[in-house]
Amino acid sequence: MTAVWRTVFDGLDRHGRVAMVTIAAKRGSSPRDAGARMVIFPDATFSGTIGGGTLEWKATAIAQAALANPGAPKAETRGFALGPELGQCCGGNVELVVEIIEKDRRAEIATLAEHEADRRFTTRGRLVSDRGVIREVVTSATLPPGAAGYAGGVLTEGFGDERRPVALFGAGHVGRALVMALAPLPFRVTWIDPRPDAFPTHLPANVTAIQADDPVEVLATMPDGTFVLAMTHSHPLDLAVMAAALAEPRFPYAGVIGSKTKRARFTRQLTEAGIPRARVAGMVCPIGASAMHSKLPAVIAATTAVELLERDEAVNAAALMDEGARA
Q1: Which of these, 23, 121, 151, 228, has the minimum number of CB atoms within 10 Å of its CB?
Q2: How sure is the predictor about 89, in pLDDT bands with cuts at 50, 70 and 90?
Q3: Are residues 122 and 139 in the same domain?
C-alpha cells in the first residue's frame, strides 16, 4: 500500500473507526515481508494484503472482531507459526500488529497523510493497549517505504511514495498498452507526446499526461531515478529522447522501442554525438526483449512491464547496498 494514511483517513470519515494489520516481523519464509499491511473497515471491506491464504483470513477475522468490540485492545501483537498453526507451507513465523484507529485521532492521521503525499519518512511507535500505536516521525533512522521492524516493543515503519517514476514518450498503440500494463504496478508515469489529442480521455490514477511542443524539455523536470522510455511516432524524436536521457547518469534506465537495426543506428549516432560509450551500451533496445516473438502492442507492453519491474528491483537493491556501505 502506497497511500496508507490517506486510506486510513478516508476510512475514518466513512466509518468512524478502522483496523490496521501490519506484518511487524518475520522469521523464515512468509507470503509477504515485514511492512506489508491491510486496512480493514467495519463493513468487511479492506485495502491491501498481507499475503492472502489462511494468515490473511485469520488476521481479517481478528481485526473485524476487534472493530465490533468497543472493549477490545486498540493495539496488540499476534504471533503465528505458519506451518504448525495455520497449515501454510511457507513454514516461517510472523508477528502481526493489530491496531484499532478511532476518529478522535483524525488530526494525527491527517498529518501523517500529508507527510506521505510529498515525502518519505520513518516513524517509531509504541503499542499502548487503550490508545493504539502512538507514532512519532524520526530522523535518526531511515526505512524504505513499505518496510517495518519490531523489537523491544517498538514498531519502526517506513512510509511514503514507493513508486518508481517513469517518463514515457509516445502515445501510440504500444504507449497506450504500456500505460495500462503499468496501471496496477509500483510506477508513477509521466506520459509525454507533442501531438494534440494524442491521449485517451480517461487515464489510470498513476498517470499524468503532458502535451509538450518540445517533449525532450520535460526530462529536465523529472526526478533522479526516473526510467525513460521512447516509443514516439518519430525516429528522430526517439533519438533525441535517448540522447538526453543517456547524457544524464541520474536516469538508471533508458529504453527505446525498435529492432537490432535501430539499435545499431542509434548506437552509432549517439556515440558520434559524444554520449559516453558505457552509457550508450546501457541503452535498452529493443525494449521488452524476451523469448516472445509477438509484435502485438499488449504483448510488448507486458514484457516491457516485466523488464521494468526487474530493473526497478535491481536499482533498489543496489541503493540499499550503497546505504549499507556508507553506514
Answers
A1: 151
A2: confident
A3: yes
Q: Are residues 46 and 130 in the same domain?
A: yes
User: What's the mean pLDDT when you consider all of the chain?
Assistant: 91
Summarised one tens digit per residue, pLDDT across range 175-229 is 999 999 999 999 999 999 999 899 999 999 899 999 999 999 999 999 999 999 9
Contact between residue 157 and residue 281 where contact means Cβ atoms under 8 Å apart? no
pLDDT value, residue 327: 47
Interatomic CA distance for residues 143 and 140, integer angstroms:
10
Report helix, strand or coil for 127.
Answer: strand
For residues 126 and 180, membership in a common domain is answered with no
Is residue 252 domain-shared with residue 145, that is, in the same domain? no
Here the cell at position 213 is 511542443
Looking at the structure, tell me whether residues 185 and 146 fall in a common domain. Answer: no
In a domain, 321, yes or no: no
My answer on whether 151 and 256 are in the same domain is no
Range(s) of the domain holding residue 60 = 4-159
Q: What is the pLDDT of residue 141?
A: 63
Selection from 151, 177, 129 nearest residue 27 by Cα: 151
d(CA 222, CA 183): 19
- Quick check: 22 and 147 in contact, CB under 8 A? no
